[in-house]
Structures are given as structure tokens and as C-alpha cells.
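hey so u asked for the seq, here:
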Amino acid sequence: MRKTLLLLAASSIALAGCDFVEGVREGAQNAAKEAAEKAEAAEQGFEIPYEKFTLDNGLEVILHVDKSDPIVAFSTVVHVGSNREKRGRTGFAHFFEHMAFNDSENVPRGWNRKAIPEWGGQRNGGTWSDGTIYYEVVPTDAVDKILWIDSDRLGFMINTVTQAALEREKQVVKNEKRQRVDNAAYGFTTEVIKKALYPDDHPYSWTVIGQLEDLQNATLDDLKEFYDQYYGLANVTFAVAGDFDPAEMREKIEYWFGELRSGPDVEMLEPRPVTLEETKSLYWEDNFATLPELRLTFPTVASLNDDEIPLRVLGAVLGGSKGSPLYEVIVDEKKLAPGVSAYNNSQEIAGEFTIRVRANAGTDLDEVKVAIEEALARFEEEGVDPAELQRIKAEQETGLYASVSTVLGKANQLATNNEFAGDPGYTGVEAKKLETLTADDVMAAYNAHIKGKPMVITSFVPQGQAELAVEGATLAEVAVEEVRADVASEEVSQGEEAEYERTPSLVDRSEPAFGELPLFSMPEIYQASIGGARLLGVESDETPVVTFDISIDHGGFFDPDGKRGAAGLMASLMNEGTASKTAAEFEQAAGLLGSSISIDAGSEDTVITVTTLARNFEKTIDLVRELIETPRFLDADFARVQQATLTGIKGRQASPGAIGSLAFQKLLYGEDHPAGPSISGTENSVSALTVADMREAHEALLSSSVRFHVVGDVDASRAEEGLTELAELFSGDADKPALPAPSPEEQDARVFFIDVPGSKQSVILAGKLIVPTFDPAHTKIDFTNEKLGGGISGDFAQVLRIEKGYTYGAYSGISNGTLPQRWQMGTSVRANATGPSLEIIREMIDQYGPTFDESDAEITRQKIVKDNTRAYESLGAKLGLLRSISRYGKPLDFLEQEQELLLSMEVADFQEVAAEHLQEDEMIYVIVGDGETQRQPVTDFAGGSIVELPASGE
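ran it, C-alpha cells below
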């Protein structure tokens, strides 16, 4: 959660330039001019209407009314991030965010995390270098409850914190760090860069999540000092967006928040950009990495600086497209990596510009560095293509609308803009700055901050491959946690509730009642038959954007024998342009329309997904037709995409989670079943594929049946007329092969272990096969699972995270497809909690059905029914709804029918489903962890017998 992510579209520019021949350049520039004029006209009319007022205590409030769905979003932005921390207490802002989700004086323990999802809501938070955010989206009946919870967090939380709660949350945050940093490939890169780039006393010289030792040393006094200093209302913005009456909402906010303290003045931090006297080059042998990665990081400017937007665009120009100089040299010409990226990250007091290349296996990073230098020299010679800037502006418009397509997006954007730019509508200001940006501005930023400037170079290479690092690099200093086998030293619990004198309040702070329950109803769906294909659509004119897809009945499960990965590789190759346009030229043409077009192969379908401005719907369809009809299957493109696929396969071997999932899949379905191995293929199968195989796969694609789904600002007749020409491309002549039944090998054990030496956590997967999605029992199993593992309020998370502090998250769920599907529980626990966690998981699954009671049933009913009010708000969610209908033959009102089914289920029905489908003694367990310390606890759990599998997955 960074400011640049929250500002969304105006801060998200992922485009770059390419150099066309003169005739193509002239045509692109003419199209760019037209697109820019349209974009400017549309942008001038764009705004998010809002009301802003300030309470006497300094709380700034932003209100935006959006009655399109019966939901309301709340965003609380506190102007404190890791840049306010002290050395020795790094990670404290993020740690405090965790603590602030726990108790408060007037809200029962655990309600913040548990009750909100049970009310059909979504809640979470995030911390970045400069700030902290808390947010919720709930049905309209829970508005008063959120105001109660949010105000209690800010004004009545600190007295409830106990030593036991502090120690428990330390373990949760440490588990988060292990999962995201210590146990992840390249996880330490940010830490190494920050230490090298910033002086020791600079507040960006440490990471947001901090050091484990600092977290362990945090005290109650530290917590109270931090709260007193930074959590006063004068340091907060509170935004509300959704379906409410603004006058009534203002009264409620004044009621709940008006008496809270302002807090001491928080001094604004002045920009403190840094400079490097000389280049620093560091390397690290990464325990999990399988590919070498090079990053060049240059110090740049703070946010709101005049160079921020030019630097953002510079990143797009240098590495954001297939026509960019970095991509051309590193990927196309020298074939050193499957991709590149370049980006600027300007924060409150300083900024960084990064060029990142994750190279092919075994690549010497000195070669990559030389290639980067060659690409930069090419950029200096050729400059910025003006047509590319126009393309950026057209795509920015689409992104701008996407950023406000949900009430949560609006609330977060308004609140963050207000707190950090002093203007809730600052995104529009940035958009206008981008519109007036010139090629000279971008080149000036490059010359000022990148050209010939000292940098931090980091070489992260696989363990034992230090020779791949840039020559002359120095070994970086990284604090690596020792993997421990003992459990007792870190046993924690919630402990007793705190004893304290309740803080007086001027208002009644007892729990408010629910308002009127909003009822969910399916959106109006239109349908038609076009060229023998089914079209389903939902018209929505909230933003002038259209999203549609073409779902083709041809996926990885249907690859010919010995050609595993063919469908996926063919889809990737189709993204490489057409017979008349290179990949860069096609990307340019789509970008000028404000469109994005991508092709991805799944297990049973290949899906072409398109997003475009409504006014360019037909022109975008023309491009899609060209892509489908005349793909660019050149030998050079194929070789590059094939190598990128092989690099991706190698890269996944760095992830303990991916290693465990692949093994789990093979054990459930069988090594030779289509659903057993990865649909991406293996290194051997992908290496054996040829261009002829791609042409064969493309012919199979065109002979398959298709389904069309469209959502957005286009009516039924226009959608039908526009998509008919695409339907004509598919004959539907091919008979879709029937998939065989799962054929797992006979096993003498149910517990499987994969040794990944040095793992700081153990990945645990447990589960079994159940029924296909179209089976009526699938929905009942889904309902029954909700209380057990459906999110943070589920039993698994509540016990393993909230009570025990063993993990950062623990969930369960059901996959979807026409084959028998997986019910799967998954978590990553700290290494020395592997044994106890397994015992808890087994007992919870075994006892779930027998102990399921009426209160569990009521929670399940309320949670799912209310969740539906917000679950299908976005265009993407509505598109997913249509896919479910067409793929599984569901009725147009299936959600309403499922809702009726849920409300009719009695306790005995839930117990029966659990007894029939969630039998613990039929489940398998896969554990990925450090063999030296965890093999014995896993063996003890298994009763003395485990099967050990290789990490390669072969």
C-alpha cells in the first residue's frame, strides 16, 4: 500500500515508446492527435463530486454519494508511516496498524476482524513509508456499526492493549515478514537497497515492515507513545463514499468522532532527497531464488515535485512496452530475460528510480548491465517519440475511470489525496499535468536524475552462483533469522482482557443496531446468440468504459500428448502482434484507443480479455479480430516467448507455495491426468514445442466453441452488432474432448513432506477432491466451508492467527471447474509451529461438522447474503458473474436461487454436507519446510510414516 498505488490511474503509467518507420509514425501521430483531443475533452468533464468539512478537533472529512449499489465505503488515512519511526523500533507504524485492528473499549474483542466480514463487509488496512490506511466496505445496514468501530479505534483503543495481546501480534507480524520477505525469493532486495541508498539517519533507510529484532523489543510504552503522538484526529482524513444521505452522514460523523482528541501538532516532514557520491554495487546469494536479478536504483525527487510526473513517464518510455529501448535490447535482441521494468517511486520526502531485470537462468548479470547501458545510450540518441506521450494520455484516461469504478476506490483516493496533497481531487490535477507534459520535460528529467549519475546496483543470485553477480560487487549485510525447532519459547495467546478505567464519553457508545437490510438482486442481464455463440451482457453507464471477454473452449487440459504447455505458449505468442503489426506496433495501436487486450490460457478455456473506452468499442474490436485472425507466428518471436516460459517455470521453483501446490495437484489427480501437472508444462515439454505446434494449437482454437461476455457502457444492440464479426471467426466444429476421471496413484501414507532447506516458514496444504462446480452439492459445500475458512473471520484464521499467532493467514475454499474440484486448506506457519499447527488443523476439520450449531448457521447465512450486496460492484466482478452462468449452465438468477437455498438450510443440512464431503480421514497433507528441523514434527503428526517428495515437482 503505497501512495502511488492509492492514487491509482493518474499515478499509474505503464507505457513506453517505439520507433516506427516514417509512414507508420505519421499514421500513429495522426491517430494520437485524435485520441488526445478526445481524451482532453472527456477529461475536462471528469470529476468526483465531493463535500469536505472539518470537525472542531481537526478531523478532515470527505463525502461522496454514489447510489449505484446499496453499499458504503469508509477510508481512514493517518499521516504516519515508517518515516516517523526511531532506529531500534523499525516496523512500528505497520505493527501499530495490526494492533489497531484488535480491541477497543466499546467494541468487543475481535469484532474488527471477525464481525465485519460476518456483516457482509470487507475490511483491511495497510502501511507505507508515509502513511497508514484503514478501510471498510459494508452493506448500508451496517453503516452505523462501522462509524462506531472506526471512531472507537481512534479514540478508545489504547487502554485495551495487554502484554499478551502485544506478544501475540508480534508473532503475527513476524510471520508476515517471514512469508513476504524472509521466505520469498528476492525478499531482502528492498532492505539492501535502502541501506545503501539512504544515510543511517534518513527515515527511508529501513523497510516498512522493519527488523524482527526491533519488533520483538516493542513495549506497551512504545505503543502508547506512538498512539499519543500520531493518532490524534488533526492528523487524520476520513472519507465516506457510497449510498447515504450526506446531511445525515455529517450528523453521524459529528456524533461519533466529534469528541475525540485532536492530538499534538505533527510537524510536516520537509523533502529530503539524497545524492550518491559514487555507485555502490552489492550482491546476495538468495536461498530461494532460481534466477539472477539485477536492479539499478537512482535517487530522485519527493512527491509533488515538478519532476515526479516526468520521471514516472520516463519509466514507461524506457521499459514499459515491447517497443521500449530496454525491452528491445535486453529481451528482443540479446535475449537475456523475459521482460524488464523501469519505474519511479516518489514518496513524501524522497524518491527512487529503478530499472529491474530478472534474467534467464544462468545469465551473467554483467551482460545484463552492459545491455542496460546500451539501451540507455539508444534512448539518449533517439529521444522520446511524441506519439508515445499521446498514447500514454489515452491509456491514462481509461485508467482514471477504472480507479473510480468502485466506492472503495473513490474513498481511498479522496482520502489519500487530501492527506498528502491537500486536495481530495488531486488525481485530476495530476492528469492535467500529464496532459501538458512534453518530450523535452521527460528528457530533462532523465538528464537531471539518471544520465551518468551514481546508483545502487544489486545482484541477487541463486545460492552458490555468486559468479553471476556484477563484477566487483560487495557481499550485502542481511539479518537472516535462524530456523529453530523449539516451540515453547514462542507460545502466545490472546490472554485475559485488559483491566482499565473506562474512558468517559459524551455520547452513547454501545453497539448501534443494524439499519434496514438491503436485498441483493441480480443485475439485468441481456443475452443473444451471435454466429452460434452465446452472448451475455450487463449495461452499466457509471463510467464510459467497456470490459469484455471471449471465452474459448480450448485450454491447457486439452494439449496433445507430449505437448504440455502448448495452449499457454500459443496464447503468449498471440500477444506478440499480428501479421501486419509487430508487438510494439499493436501495443501502440491499442494504447492510442485507451484499450488493453490480453490473451491467457487457463485449464479449460483460453480467454481474450479487453478493456476500452466506450467510444472506441468498435475500433478495438477491429484490433481484436486482427489478433485472432492473423497472429504473428515468427520464429524469432516464438524463441523469445518459449524462453520466457521456461524462465517462468524455473522461477516458480523458488516459491515454497508453488512447490507445494504442484505436488498437491499431482497427488489428487494423478501424475498423468490433465489436471495433475501444471498447465504451463515442464522444462522438457516446453523445450520440445515448435512453431508448427503453435499453428496447430491456433487451428484448434479457431475450431472451438466460444462464449462472449460484455459489461459496461454499451447497450445490447451495439454489443451484439460489434461482437458478431468476432463470433464468425470460430467454427465450433471441434468436439471438446471429455476429460477423464482423476486417477491418483495408490499411496501408503496421507502426509507428504518436501524439504526446502532454510525455510523460515512451513507451507501446509490439506484437502481432498469433491464435486464439479455444476454439481448442486458444490454450492452447499461452499456455504458450509464459509465459517471454517472463508476469510479472516473463518475458524482457521481465528485460531491459527488470532489466538495462536502461528501464521499471517489461514484459509480454505473450493476451486471451480467441470472436473471434480479441490477443497483445500492452506497456510504458512512459522517453522517451529509446524507440528502444533498440523494437530490443530486436523482437529478443526474433524470436529467441524459435529460441532456446527445454529449460531454458526446464522453467521453463515448473514455473511453470504450481505456479502452479495458488494461482491458484484465492479465491472470485473460482473464479468465473472457472466462467465459462471455461461460456463456452468447456471440460470440468469442463479445467485438469487442460491440465496434462497442458503436461507432454507438448517443446522442438520450443514452437518450432513460436512460429514459427506469434508471427511478428515480422506484428506492428504502436503508440507513444504526445512527438513533438518521440521521432518521429525511432521513424522510425529503422521504417526511415524511420511512420504518425502522432491522439491523439483518431477
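The domain at 9-45+271-405+417-475 is CATH 3.30.830.10 (Cytochrome Bc1 Complex; Chain A, domain 1). The chain has four domains: 9-45+271-405+417-475, 51-268, 531-727, 751-949.
lmk if thats what u needed
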